[in-house]
Amino acid sequence: MQNFPTLAKAMVATMRESAAAEPQRAITFQGSPGANSHRAAMEACPDCLPLPCFSFADAIDAVKAGKAGSAIIPIENSQHGRVADIHFLLPASGLSIVGEYFMPIDHALMGLGKGPFKAAYSHPQALGQSHHFLRERGIVPINYTDTAGAAAFVAEQGDPSIAAISPPIAAELYGLEIAEQNVQDAHDNMTRFVILAQDPLDPAVLDGDEAITTFVFEVKNVPAALYKALGCFATNGVNMTKLESYQEGASFAATMFYADIVGAPGDPAVDRALEELAFHSKELRILGCYRQARKRG
To answer: Rounded mean pLDDT of 103-124?
Structure first.
């Protein structure tokens, strides 16, 4: 609690009290009230009790501890790519992906007046999504832990020369003026969130809906191992919609791959592909199977 900006603490305390009374309705998110993840929680799960957490790890740990039924975490943005560290956090979390949500992102430049501003505070993702806007105006980007927290911080500083890039609702919550709306560089700016829970979805409950299966794997250290692993999906007609690599550990000897495919276990083609992938891999972990929120392909 002590890490939240002063202006956010009363709201956070109220939201935590509500979540504590009905933890299964609670959904954790990273950031202060008014952050994009707060909005995503309310839109994806309208009946939920949003529970602010200071970090992604805190949001995950609250679900593991039974303080909330689920968490909503941003994993990638159409303009600025993957959210930092998320590929390490998800496999290690022990939670399962049970849903996804796509949310258009609109950022506003806000401060104690209309500017001019020397610097703007926000989460690195929001700053990256507004890079050209800031550069054209000579505004220095400064990292903050979350977008709404940045707005609260700017309000607390009392300095009219600094601004925040935050969702418009943050200006109302923390008493700031919006200097400019829609400051993101791309106006089709979209963030994909995943919903995490302790128990995985049974593929049988998907009732024939189009599904996504997310997993991580590490191929054997032999020639053409990745080629053979990916061939499993080609020969079985399974559409892979995402493949990203990342290094685990400091040796640089083992590359992990994070992937999404269309389909779910129980589908014979998916089962064959995953069985063959396991044969070519040192490790394979399913992170979740869930309904598509947006059709691929």
So the answer is: 95
Q: Which member of 28, 145, 147, 191 is catalytic?
A: 191
CA dihedral 90, 92, 97, 100 (to 10 degrees): -10
Q: What would the mean pLDDT of 265-283 be, rounded to a whole number?
A: 95
CA–CA dist 123, 8 (Å, integer): 16
C-alpha distance from residue 264 to each of 44, 218, 239, 275 (Å): 22, 20, 11, 13
Indicate the residue type of 235: T
Q: What percent of the chain has pLDDT over 90?
A: 80
Tens-place pLDDT, residues 196-245: 999 999 988 887 789 999 999 999 888 898 999 999 999 999 999 999 98
The pair of structure tokens assigned to 112 is 């104690």
Residue type, 75: I
The tokens for 11 are 């709201």
Catalytic site residue from 54, 117, 193, 257? 193
Active site includes 145? no
Average pLDDT over residues 44-65: 95
HSE-CB of 259 using CA atoms within 13 angstroms: 23
Facing residues of 162 across strands?
Answer: 119
Q: How far is it, in rounded angstroms, from Cα 256 to Cα 158?
A: 46
Which among 232, 216, 263 is positioned nearest to 86, based on CA atoms?
Answer: 216
Q: What is the C-alpha to C-alpha distance for residues 278 and 64, in angstroms, rounded to an integer? A: 28
Is 191 among the catalytic positions?
yes
**Residue-wise DSSP of 218-237:** EE-SSTTHHHHHHHHHHHTT
For 190, other C-beta atoms within 10 Å of its C-beta total 14
